[in-house]
Every structure is written in C-alpha cells, then in structure tokens.
Amino acid sequence: MATSPPPVGYRAWLAVVSVALAIFAVVSAEMLPIGLLTPIAHSLDQSVGQSSLIISLPSWVAAITAPCVVLIFNRINRRSLLLFFMLLLLGSNLMAAWVNDFHWLLFARILFGISMGGIWCMAGSLAIRLVPLHVVGLATSIIFSGIAAASVLGVPLGVYLGDLWGWRFAFICIAIMVAVVFVMLYWSLPSLETDPTAHWSSSLDVLKQKNVLFGLAITVFMVMAQFSAYTFIRPLLQSVAQFSDQHISALLLFYGFFGILGNFTAGHFAQKYLWQTLCTIAVFIGVSLLIFAYFGGSQSISIILLLIWGMAYGGVSVSLMTWMMRAAPTQIEIASAFNISMFNLSIGLGAFTGGLIVDHMGLEQNLISAAVFSTVAALLILLCVKTRNQPQPLESKRP
C-alpha cells in the first residue's frame, strides 16, 4: 500500500511566497521605467532614447552578476546572501527616488542590476531546497508567478502612482515593498548551506552538457521573440490596433492575468510533458505575433491574440527553469545562474533588435521578426528531442 507524501509546513510555504514576492519586487523595479520613461527623461533633461539606458543597463549588469554570484560567493550561506541582495535592492530604489542627476540615476540602476542578478540566480533554484520533491512543481510555479503578477499589478500600479505623485514616489513604493519582503524572508527562510565545490571548472563542466546548451539557446530565441515585440506593445496597440490610451492599461492588465494563468498551467504540465509544453509555448507566441502582424488592425482579433500571447509567455520562465533544473540536477544553482544570465542578455538584445527593426521597417515587420525568433526556439526544442538531448525528470532525491 502506497504511503502518502509528508505534509509541507506553513513556514516552508511562507518562504516560497516570500521568494515569489521578492521576484515580484525585482520585476516591478526592472519594468517600472518603461511606463515612466517620458516623465523621467523630462525631469532629468534627457532625451527618451538616452533615458532608455535605465532599462537596458540593469539587464546587462544582471547578466554578468548572476554567474559571478554563484562562483565568487560559493561559500556564503544562501539565506544571508539573498538578504544582502534584498538590502541592495532596497537601497538602489531609494537612491533612484532621491537623485537629481541622470548619471547618479544610472549608478542607482547599476546597483539595482547587481541586486537583480543576485536575487534571480538564487530565487529560481530555491523551490527544490524549500519543499519536498512532490510539490517542487507547484512551488516553482508560485515563485515564478511573481513575474506575471508584476505585469498585472506592479507595473500598472507604479505608472498610476507615478502619474499621481511623480515617478520618484513610484520608486519609493517599490522600496517600501522590498522592506516588507525582507522581513518576511528573514523570518521564514531556513539556513541554506552551499556546496563549496562550485568553481570555474565545474561551471565549464555544466556548459559541456548538450541539454544545458540547448536550454540556453532556447532561452535566447524565446526571450528575444518576447521582448523584441513586447517592448513596443504600447505603440503596437495604439498605431496598429487603434486603441485609445484609456483602453491600453486595461488590455495590459488582462494580458498579465492571462500570464499568471499560463504560468500555473505550464508549471503543471511541464512536470510530465516538459519539451511538449515549451514547444507549445513557442508555437503559440510565434503564431499569435504573426497573425497580429497581418490582422492586428481588427480590435477584436488583436484582443484575442494579445490574451493568447500573454498566456503563452506566462509559462516561459517556469518551463525554462524546469528544463535547467533537470538538465543539471546536481548543479542547479550554476545552471540557473547561466540561464538567468542569458535571459537578461536576451531581454536587452531583443529590445535593441526590435528597436532597429521598428525604426527602419515598422511595427508589423518587427512582429514577423519576433515570430521567426520564436519559430527558431521551437525548432531547437524539436532538434533536442530528435537527438535525445532533452533533460529527464528529477529523481526522488535532492541534489
């Protein structure tokens, strides 16, 4: 007679929720300037193009920070290190709200990028250390729901507060939330000892594994597809679909709600059907963007496509992290760090590529280009399956 799995204590679930809120705060702080770029530029006497550095620079800094955190601080307890980066996140947002010079704002965003890389590389791999194996899938989905939740509540609320009381107040609100999450993490996180054997040679060993390399390549093209298109979601809805300003915030809210739904749906199916889930996500993103390029002028069609797009992308982070956890089950933190590094590099690269295409060819051509990126990701997944390099499910033991 099969025995039922042991129950999970409330403190473990509180730790999972706290990590999810940390992710929520990081993503909110990362994406907040997208909606406040114009008032920030005007306030600091900068062009909008120049001011966009406060968005792209932290992503590139985080891409460098993530693997360095794992390798340089390999002997430091992960609980202590996560709390340190939360304090750095708090300080960077307070500094961003305080400074009056653009160069100091860039410095604050560099500090934010360091904290983002540090938090991301640890948070993504914490689920398997906080809860038993039979609920790791649910815990991972909860942690990564912070991404979709930030797009639903964090960014629109920040923009709303910025419009009411100025962009500085929006950063102050993020800082207050970070302080609350810090207290929750301090109380709920157990001691998280590290494996001091992690070093540069072991990281290179991870990069020699074909399923890890496939996972990183899939990450690049899938994230580039998303951010080459999503960076220009506002002009897309205004110029192509002809929505008014008052409708766009509501549409983005629905986009985010469907993203949360997609996060938990993908997290559930990825436990048994990982490559099929990722391939389905890539196909749905590509098809929705391609159809939008040709039929986005119809508002009813564009709404349907936007919701499909949001639900599909909502499952990307949890599915990619599940891939990396399975690809390197004994070196999850290092594999996660490289994945976060490529993820952030791809955000910047996707936004940069999309900007070039939009400037020279237009919004519709950019959607077609993004659909091509997503198609390449799907083909890489199929190639991985054909060559039998897809990762296998985790065994019933912790790394």
Automatic annotation (TrEMBL):
Keywords, comma-separated and alphabetical: Cell membrane, Membrane, Transmembrane, Transmembrane helix
SUPFAM superfamilies xref list: MFS general substrate transporter
Keyword Transmembrane helix in annotation: yes
Residue ranges of the TM segments: 53-73, 80-99, 105-128, 135-159, 165-187, 212-233, 248-266, 273-295, 301-325, 337-361, 367-385
A single MF term (Gene Ontology): transmembrane transporter activity
Superkingdom per UniProt: Bacteria
InterPro entries: MFS (IPR011701), MFS_dom (IPR020846), MFS_Efflux_Transporters (IPR050189), MFS_trans_sf (IPR036259)
Localization: Cell membrane
Membrane topology: Multi-pass membrane protein
GO cellular component, as recorded: plasma membrane
Domain Major facilitator superfamily (MFS) profile: 14-389
Main localisation: membrane
Name recorded for this polypeptide: Major facilitator superfamily (MFS) profile domain-containing protein
